[in-house]
Amino acid sequence: MAGGRETCLTLIGFLLICMKMVASAKSAPEIPTIDQAYSKISNSITVEWATVPGATSYLLTAEDGDTVIETMVANSPGTVTGLKAATLYEITIRSISAAGRSQASPPKQAKTVLAAPILEVSSPSSDSILVQWEAVYMAIGFSVSIMQANGLGSIWKENTTNTSLTFTSLEAGTLYTIKAYAWNANGIPGDDSTCNQRTSPRAPANIQVSFDSGALKASFSWALAEGAFNYTVMALSDSSELTCSTAFSSCTISSLQCGTEYLISVSASNDAGSSKSSSTVTLKTVACAPGRVTIQEDPPGHLSVAWSNVDLGDYYVVFVKSDDGLEVHCNTSLTECNFLSECGFTYFISVFAYNKAGQSPLGDIFNYTTAPCCPSDINPVLVSSDRVEIVWSPVRGAELYETKAADGYNTVECNDTVPACTLSALECDTKYNITVYSFSEVRGSNMSCTPQFITTAPCSPEIKNVSRDAFSTINVHWQSTNDDATYTVTAQGEKGLYQCSSMGESCTMRGLPCGSVFSVTAVAETQAGRSLPSYSVPLETVPCCPTGLTVTQITQSVINVSWTIGRVAQTHVAVLESHTGQSKCHTHQNYCLLGCITCGVNYTVTLKAISATGLTADCSYQSYFSGACCPLGVKLYRLGSNGIRIYWQASRGSASYSTDLYGSKGIFTCTPSAGLSFCDVTEIPCGDVYTVMVSPVAETGLKLTFCPKKIYSVTCSGSTLGMVIYRGKRNEE
Prior knowledge:
Structural class: mainly beta
CATH class of the largest domain: Mainly Beta
Largest sheet: 5 strands, antiparallel
CATH architecture of the largest domain: Sandwich
CATH superfamily of the largest domain: Immunoglobulins
Oligomer: single chain
Distance between the termini: 150 Å
Number of helices: 1
Strand content: over 45%
């Protein structure tokens, strides 16, 4: 029995082992065997193997000792990507089915190929291309080839161990394709790089020059260069360099200088760079107009005009025309002419040089003005205790008026082109000696003008103490430095207004209701005028700030500051401040005029609101740029038979200008290019009288119209020698 039992147990164990082996055979597919592993791209390895029966996919594994990268593929061959270039990897594969995955196959080693070199290409000359690259890891050599991008011509190929290579003897202005790759110690090539580069063009040939002596401009033409995108013409002299650029075979350079020899060269360019300059061509212009013209009146009544010699000048003609229409001239081979003159006139003088080639270009037109007269009927009008407004009638020959107010210690000045001025920042209750001097640009100020005397309004009194007794009587005490002034004290509150007057330093008000808050102020009055109110006492809160601050330019040196008065505010102080100084007014109104403003300067505008108790609120700050200065020295030049050039001297500060000519035959307007102080009006009828005004233009585009106007007469004398005659200044309200 025992032996039979042992035999039965042995049989059962054998059956269990057989069943386990069958179950194991169904749980995983066979282990695949790698046939080969190789790399054709620097970031991948391709693996080939024999198909495993029952396998639905395969797991490829690449390991370099630092990283492990796995890729699932469906069948052979399969590729592992995301690898490092020139790196040795150990490759294994597992087969996968629905029952599971096999063990890893025996490993096989494969190395990725070299990375492609990163190319930098340029064309240092019209027949060469330079190729450069960084060193490639594990590379011992490089192959670089080049051919025309259109497929024409031959292919050049060079091998090198360096990291740069230059291809020469190439076609100028031609697009080339460059291809390069590296190889390792086994001669296996890596990835390649491809790029395009164009050679720079050759210098243009067959340069032709056409010169226009009247317009002082030249036109240039040349033969087109292969592969050129653009051409640049350079006109070089000892003092200047002018250029013009074009994509065509010709261009024009204007604004050539008279009496100058230019060397002309032309270069071509494309996206690869510029060619060498062509051989230079010489261009000579016409002679210049005479310069260094000086005008003197010595003795008075005699004008002497002198100038410097000019190259190629055979003789000279001087034209002198006064603003009453009389014109004279002299013809000489010397460098000086003399004329009779009269006081109170402006003379316009031009000098021309002549030779066999013809007349020189129109030079500067000079003017000489005799000393202007002093202003008459000066009418000083007291505006406030710190400002005086003065008006007078215009005088002949004055281009600017200078007003000075002196009190023996200090002097306040303002300059303006209109016959009016507002003097600011004056001392109250002070006698001033006010003088208006007329000024012309050439002759300067007439210092013989008679002064006027004016006393400003009294100073505002200062309330020192406000007290109330048991009978509702208010005693107000103040302090003031005024002479012979009558003071009026006002107490104003929610329930009424009360006043008292005195010529001393105190007064009493009775009958005031109790339980109210009053603002108490004092005002001084003399024969000269009335002062601003004193600071009120008491004031528990600061006043409301005014709104709607507006700054308006009235004249070149006067602006108006206005605002909307806020609640509780009694007086305001407007201040304009810049690096040139400060202008200030103190007023109980909602505006004030500020004078002595410097044109063309950026000011900080400050407006303060002052309460009845003297507390001050700094209500508004803003930047204000005063209008550009009116130009001086406005002159007209004749350009040919039907053109006028208006020239002026730009004043301080950068500004744009607009010029208007008003005549019976039309209105003509011109705007100069940026940075120029002249502009030209063409096709203007001669034989007419024109009113000329040169106005600054604000950044907003607004034309400032307070500059003076001048009247000129344009004659029709001759085909090219008609004169522009100054007829005087036009006076407007």
